[in-house]
Amino acid sequence: MSRQLVILAALVIAATGCGKKQEHGDPGNRSIESSIESSIISPASAAVVPPRGPRTVDPEAVRPVAPERSEHAVFQLVDNRHAAHRYTGGDLVLDAADAGFARYTRFSMPAPRWKLGQEVDGERAAIADRLAVLEVPLSAAEAQGITFVTARVHGANKQRLALKVNGRRPGKDASAELVEGWITVAIPVARGYFTAGENQLALETSGGDDKVAVAWMRLGSSIGSRDPRADAVFDGTGEAITLAKDAALAWYVTVPDGAHFVATVNAPCKVELRARASDDSFAGGLLAADHPRVDLAAMAGRVVALSLTARECPRTTIQAPRITLHGPAPVALPSGEPPRYVILWVMDALRADKIPIFTPGARAQTPNFEELARTSTVFRQYYVQGNESQTSHSSMWTGLYPAVHGVRLAGVGGVWRIGSQFDLLAQEMGAAHFTTLAVTGNGYVNEDGGYARGFSEFRNMMHETGVENGIIYGQQIVDAALGKLDRHRSDPAYLFLGTIDTHGPWIARKPWIDIYSPGPYHGPFQEFGTAKELGFKAGSMGCSVIPPPADVERLRAIYDSAISYHDVQVGRLVKQLKAWGIWDQTMLIITADHGEELFEDQRCGHGGSLRDSLTRVPMLIHDPARFPAGTVVEEGAEGVDIMPTVLAAVGAAAPDGPQGAPLEPLAQGVGRGWVRPSYASQYEYAHAMRIGRWKIRVGPRGTLLIGDMVADPGETKDAGPGHPIERRMLTDNLGMFLALRRQWRKAAWGVVTSVTPAGASALDEASTP
Q1: What digits encode the pLDDT tens for the residues 207-226?
Q2: What is the pTM of this model?
Q3: How far is CA 574 from CA 15, 256, 372, 651, in A?
Q4: What b/e string do you get for 701-730 counting C-beta neighbours within 10 Å, with b at 16 or more?
Q5: Top-level CATH class of 341-670?
Q6: Which CATH architecture has domain 3-38+116-221?
Q7: What are the φ/ψ torsions at residue 732 (nearest 5 degrees)?
Q8: CA-based Rg of the chain, rounded to a whole angstrom?
Q9: Distance between alpha carbon 484 and the CA centroid of its chain, in Å?
Q10: Cβ neighbours of residue 464 under 8 Å, at least 6 residues apart?
Q11: Tens digits of per-residue pLDDT, 456-499?
């Protein structure tokens, strides 16, 4: 025998009492050598998720929907192949050669432990550190059935690969000796170490100088001779999936209202479709040549594990599998004349949940916002990319995620100014023959930080006062900005204005403070949030003192009064633009750079967390030629989208760098009806992503919290333990995005919850450093 066979022989002999299952009807009394030869496997391509729970399906759900309807696809399974979980013969298969392997690598935190998409001795693979951890989802039956972890690995002589499962060594023989080059090892695992839910699998390499590479792994009771990825093959060009009998694929997705699943299955084969929720309820049916669709209405609005399992035939072809919604595909309408004036108004420290048009039921009176919304598009799930001014402004200015522009004031690495190598929005607007003007009261958005680059006139009024976090009323900034615009009305103009009324120290504004805090108040915060009583230090973004409940309520009322004051300034600006006769030629974008914590988690100010109170801010765009009036968009949008949105509106070619995408198509319905993510970073040592009602926050050491933002908008508890499907959906999307966030281009790739054909092709070849 070869050295590889000798290694595997010892493993198989040691595992003879571990309940080994033979594949595809192989006899149970095969010789040791034939068993060994069967577990030396060659590379291949894709694979799958078996149905969980009983295999019976609702007979009503099996019936095809009739008559067929006018519809359009909102999720193409082949394009989203990198999000598919693979199963064969009931075993979970991890394709480590694929960029989608990132979904199992625990967000590369607290430090990257895997290099993805590497070429190793002729095969694509993931290269593991000496200690590399994976996290994989298993049902109770799958966990109970695992007696081997089989893997195709590339190592060196005298190296040993050992396993730990959920922090424990799963038996005394849970390791394998490696040799030079590619081999397949089958490591025995005692039953009971894997459990239902998420499981941590640690790979520990000892000996030698090289790192181990992994092409694929199989968790189950089989150690067969073939590459299990061959049981599920994607054809991106032909938009098809080929599945071996009883092989399965699963995607973790949110089912929209009115969704059908549609696919063409070759006769006489059948494919079992199942959409299973966290409470084990499910909808499903059988897809066949004469049954091309299943109605998913029973699972509308829920996150499910959507699985396809091939039945009947040795191999089944599934053509154009997709989730559809009723009606023709939305198409972006031809735009009118580009705006002659573009105004970007960033309201410092303004929360979206405090304004009624963004969060119905909010207390603050904002009649001008409400009137403006009637002629604008409102984005209700809009995230800035940082939780403080510099990071978020840098993403708005460049269209880049923080991992690329690198601007942050804490954590490891990073810079404090925008690099000269990046294209900025004001520069691009100047190149498009717009006069570029700026007036801001934010002391950190200044010339030294690179934020003035590209502006022909830039004024920072805070620097004129010489006082950090000083007091400049919004009326002063709006008046100064309108004065600049008035002097340049004869030319196309781009105007940035930044107001700071909702930034600490929060100042009580009449008459609203008497409305929001009507009772007698005798505490220290009569007029504003004083720095002494809150423990603010010069230049700090948060308080160090938590006042008693009555004072907290007073401060929240003061904050709301500042919002209503801001609303008056919105009305003043719009009124003046109308008086000049240029309102119909103006694109007005109103947003914020971050929110403000108001003691919900024993903090105030910003920079301290990734709660929605800091990351979810207003976004409203008035530009009726491109953004339909009175439209509310619930799908995710981000600060990186501002630069490409503005450049697209004025007809300017966007540079190659920006990672965001224009919001005009989304506002006009393209991509609507399918959840889109919003992402934020905290100094690149913590991350958050919101997808529909669900949110994930990952801390510096990889600890995570799952939030149900409908049932628990205050993010007071971890919803993960009771919602394993939602947790895995969030883990899949954030894990994939974080691994590739330096490369992701939304305009070409789509979003991580719905990848385009171009994005799928790019992911086929993607790698991480």
Answers
A1: 988 899 999 999 999 887 78
A2: 0.90
A3: 76, 37, 9, 24
A4: eeebbbbbbeeebebeebbbeebbbbbbbb
A5: alpha beta
A6: Sandwich (2.60)
A7: -60, -50
A8: 28
A9: 39
A10: none
A11: 999 999 988 776 667 899 999 999 999 999 999 999 999 999 99
Alpha carbons 730 and 724: distance in angstroms, whole number:
10
The residue ranges of every structural domain in the chain are 3-38+116-221, 42-89+222-330, 341-670
Q: Whats the size of the chain, residue-wise?
A: 769
The CATH number that domain 42-89+222-330 falls under is 2.60.120
Phi–psi pair at 450, nearest 5 degrees = 90, 5
Q: Which H/E stretch holds residue 739? A: helix 724-740
List the structure tokens of 114. 């895997």
Please say whether the beta carbons of 754 and 692 come within 8 A: no
Q: How far apart, in whole angstroms, are the C-alpha atoms of residue 437 and residue 716?
A: 42
Cα dihedral 363, 364, 367, 368, rounded to 10, equals -140
DSSP for 253-317 reads EEPPTT-EEEEEE-TT-EEEEEEE-TTS-EEEEEEBTTB-EEE-GGGTT-EEEEEEEEESSSEEE
| d(C-alpha 227, C-alpha 216), whole Å | 8
| 3 state SS of 347 | strand
Beta bridge partners of 114: 128
Report the half-sphere exposure of 124 (CA within 13 A, side-chain side). Answer: 17
10 Å CB burial of residue 689 (0-12, 13-18, 19+) is: buried
